[in-house]
Records
---
Amino acid sequence: MSNLRQQDVPAEDLSDLGSPAPRGAGLAGLVGTAASPGRPQRVEPDHTSTPETVHQPVRSVPSDVDEIAVRRRGKPGRPRTRVKPTTAVYVSPGVKQRFEAYRHKRKATNLQVVLEAISSKHEELAEIIRDSTFNIAPVNPLFPADPSAVRYVGGGSVQIGFSPTAEQEEVIDQIGEGIGFETRSTWIAPVLNAFLPGRKDSRPAR
């Protein structure tokens, strides 16, 4: 007969199969204290993360910009102010008429015509002044003439205005001083008379 004996094996407890373990019981060691089942956890608002309101600086428009805009607009229908002539030469009506005809034909300004005349006759200035000089109150050669009675052919009472630059004025005055004149309005008239096309003025008959 065999020596094997039947051993009594304790019956396995299967009572837990009918009642499952609570949810999350297997993760208790990983998550920490498990939340009570069926009760939501309350979340406190985090006030520390509220973004601060950033106020953008208001850019102020410079006052000079407004002033410039006002000046540019100006008054409606108001024409622009032209630059006033800074100097003038006084010529006869005949020279003035020839001057305007030449200026319109060349589509030039008063200044351009005056400078062209001086440049064109620059080498002849002394001769032009000498031949254009006359005296309205002549006296005996023994006595000096009255400067206020000296006149120049081409001069008169009609004004021609022009506006040279400071550098151009300096050159004009240097040329005038070279031929004995302190004022530019006197000697330019006979130069224009000699330069402009058309019938030229001449000495008055004595």
---
Amino acid sequence: MLCCGIRVAMTACAFAGTILLGHAAAEEPRTVPRAGESLTYRIIVTTTLKTATGSKDQSTGWNYTYHVTSSGDHTADGTIELTTVYTAPNCPPNACDAVRREMDRLKARKEGAFYAVDIPPAVTRALTKLSAFRWRHFILELTQVALPNMRTGPGKVQFDPTAAQVQLTRLDCDKAALESFFPMGKSPRVSVPCTQSGERSQAGRPLTGTRFPKQEITFDISYEGQGTVTTPSGEWRVQKIRMTSSRPKSPANWVTEIFFSEQLGAIVKEHSITTMATSSVSVQNDRELIAVSQ
């Protein structure tokens, strides 16, 4: 049961120092992070199912680090390291003992309502080599993540350095439309048409097996002003951005609030919610920056 929860969290992923408020006051505003920086985020995904008698929540999450290897005026590239997986088992009373035993075999620790399972360093190093990202300002233009395999046996559960799955997502947006938003808030509101595509491989095979159909998406981006937010990584001056998306003939409604640091050139906090006009299911994503290092 627990392995199922861990796998859900990893699939959803697909997917030391603190920089304080005033350190870069004299620098030019940045819209991408510097080369050599590593940004660690925690994301929690909560799926809510509304029923006639109430609602049920299922939460999973993970910690992951973006290692920036190159950076320019508009884009930053690097690798993604998945380090910790979170699960909050919603187990029946008679099954919770089995969940706890499985958590013990994975050497999980309790963090509030969650069990946190650290992925062994040898596994994260192997999987990071298969990963990649490209940020274009606050939009992830390319994401490639490798999800770890899990071996189970009598009395034993462990991670395997061989990737269970590699997922690649591309977002090809109208660059001129996006650039018209910068400097931040130059245009109070812009619409950016994009094409999303993706591929998936199983068990380390080349990315030629499963291709996802291309989808046309339009992002409406609005500037919402300035403010200050505090995360585990420190206190940040931020630019507030609101994004919504629309897809032809799609019942989904997606809204996200972004808190962006021009000192760092990255998102430091984000909250999004997806609802479906034809479904009683909603999904919330909460992401925050927990560490920055060089």
---
Amino acid sequence: MHDFLAEIPEKLECIQLQAGLHLDAIRVHKQRDSVLVSIFVVLERIVNELTQTWRGTTISPGTY
């Protein structure tokens, strides 16, 4: 019984460590989502710029 009670602080420390890692993982996932959104916003702007440039060079007025 004494050995079992002696293991409790170790097990609690392990649980606290895992809980801390879980909270850090949640923060990392939120930051990852923000980075992905930013990347797609930049890609969308690049595509829009390229599309406008492509339209301007290939379609001249009166050629519809």
